[in-house]
Amino acid sequence: MNKKVxxxxxxxxxxxxxxxxxxxNHNEVYYYWNESGxxxxxxxxxxxxxxxxxxxxxxxxGMPKDLDVYGGEKICCKEDYYKSLSIxxxxxxxxxxxxxxxxxxxNPHSEKRKLQYMGSAFSREEGNNIEKGRWxxxxxxxxxxxxxxxxxxxxxxxxxxxKKGFYQGRKKNIKQVVIKKEAPLxxxxxxxxxxxHKFVHYTPKDYDGVNxxxxxxxxxxxxxxxxxxxxxxxxLTLSSSPAFVPKNLSTEVLxxxxxxxQLIYGKLSNPIPLG
Length: 275
Hints:
Elements: E1 11-15, E2 18-23, H1 29-36, E3 41-46, H2 91-96, E4 100-106, E5 115-120, E6 128-131, E7 134-137, H3 147-157, E8 170-171, E9 185-190, H4 213-224, E10 233-237, H5 247-265
Parallel strand pairs: 2-10, 3-4, 3-9, 9-10
Antiparallel strand pairs: 1-2, 4-5, 5-8, 6-7
């Protein structure tokens, strides 16, 4: 394990020969995405929530005009940049800075929209627009400038993508997942994808996101075993809190998830503290 620097969140390890990191809060995985040096990656995001909000707009006010300068450094490369991101808004900067080129979102809780393709930076399909060299999702409010106006325009033009306030992609099954040969793969998991105490995207109002977590985990492990290539990086978030993974189950869910990942990718090089 590399020596931990002050700004490094969570724990750094490896699964087999794949770099692996575990964080408490989901925005913290951005640190490892940036540190990896990966570009134009396919992100396979496993979560009970999209995490594709605009997040804290303060960090991108004025972009892209002031894109390259933040205290004399590129903002994306600042070691503590992840601290300015929200737990629901850390994916957008990954797109903006070219770490991520396309995304699939797997929500094990949802029967209606279990696996969705959320689009690619390399095409105009599925409502995406490439504008002035940056990626702007037409169905999202990812405008880096006139935020309210762009959001209004997107809602007016693509109303179907805003049903119930969630972000919709195109429904897929695992055999339809395409990862380009040259594209790195980032596998990103949140334990609330399996066990979540409160509100989960694309589920009924009275949905119980805690019971049945083992079945959801087992199904997910089987699903990712069909991915076309091994990840270049795996990040995992605990989300242990009253709103997400109940604290009385967090250790058990983590341990079971690690067991499943090791079956596919190899042994954990360094132990992850449980509890």
